[in-house]
Amino acid sequence: MKISAKAEYALKAMYEIARHTQKNININVSEIAQLQGIPKAYLEQLIVHLKKAGLVRSIRGAKGGYVLSRNAGEINANEIIEAVEGPMDLGHCIGSKACSKSDKCVANDVVQQLRQSIDNVLNNITLQYFIDKYSNKEDI
Amino acid sequence: MKISAKAEYALKAMYEIARHTQKNININVSEIAQLQGIPKAYLEQLIVHLKKAGLVRSIRGAKGGYVLSRNAGEINANEIIEAVEGPMDLGHCIGSKACSKSDKCVANDVVQQLRQSIDNVLNNITLQYFIDKYSNKEDI
DNA sequence: GGTATTCTGATAAGAATAGTAAGAATTAAA
DNA sequence: TTTAATTCTTACTATTCTTATCAGAATACC
């Protein structure tokens, strides 16, 4: 039960992209990496997933970078994490022999409850929430 | 973000021990393994942790096995999972350089919210809840 | 044309997970 | 008192997952 570095990096990167998009400037991978302390080459890979998920738009070539493709209030932590980690699975039981009777599986019960709770939390955390809480007006 | 096999097995094993304890019989590792489809040798290791955490009592020697050491209503999923997985950590940020300013770390924010939510769910799932929901009166 | 950047794919080291195996210690029962 | 069943302990192993690193191709601004 842990948050992967992938998810952590993706949240941080999206926060930076969101901040800069609201200032009408794009930000490139090197800047994000430096601001948030993320290995650049690794981040490059992650951002591709964020792009494929439709969360950011890329601007290629010199002076390129990334901007949000939607409003910060319309992108939540669930989408961001799912973009880089794939659909949250949880639970080996699903479909296994011991749990074909999955409506009698205690582990499955726990997994379902957890999933619902986690989804609820992550769906309610938007990038706008991050900006309102963490971004100072005077920062770039 | 996933439930480990360890946690899954521990929940299932504790459920079986709880059921049997309420019938005043102890159950051994082989029986648990067979009933729940868990590799026996692996389960042996896990149960030792459950014992060290004070959740079960062992009866050694022939006709030995395990019984709950507390009432089923007083043992919850959080304790069970923590017993086999150690304290839930989540989040690489904690204490890292990029997040020494951890009150400005968006990933840390998410981790805190998740942790609280997960704890809340797991604390409210007791073994008695499992028994009431899943155990038929006519089963041994 | 040169440079900055995104994009793509291959590779690799290390950690974690899940499991296996062998046998020592303990105790009920024959 | 022996035997058999069981917990307990330790060491090992195979596989997958995570977290990168690296090299270079494609793209677009100046």
| Low-confidence residue ranges of chain A | none
**What is the number of strand segments of chain A?**
2
**Broad shape of chain A:** elongated
Average pLDDT level of chain A: 91
Order of helices and strands of chain A: HHHEEHHH
Enumerate how many helices of chain A there are, as a single number. 6
Instruction: Give the termini distance of chain A in whole angstroms.
Output: 36 Å
CATH class descriptor of the domain at 5-89 and 126-134 in chain A: Mainly Alpha
What does this structure look like?
The structure is a homodimer of 140-residue chains. By secondary structure, chain A is mainly alpha-helical. Chain A has a domain at 5-89 and 126-134: Winged helix-like DNA-binding domain superfamily/Winged helix DNA-binding domain (Arc Repressor Mutant, subunit A). Chain A is built from six helices and two strands, in the order αααββααα. The first copy, chain A, has helices at residues 5-22, 29-36, 40-52, 77-85, 106-123, 127-134; strands spanning 56-59, 65-68. Chain A has a two-stranded antiparallel ribbon. In chain A, a hairpin with a 5-residue loop joins β1 and β2. In chain A, α1 packs across α2, α1 packs across α3 (40-52) and α2 crosses α3 (40-52). The first copy, chain A, is elongated. Chain A starts with a helix and ends in a 6-residue tail after the last helix. In chain A, 39% of the residues are buried. The model of chain A has no long low-confidence stretch (mean pLDDT 91). The interface between A and B is large, with 44 and 44 residues. Chain A binds a DNA duplex (30 and 30 nucleotides) through α3.
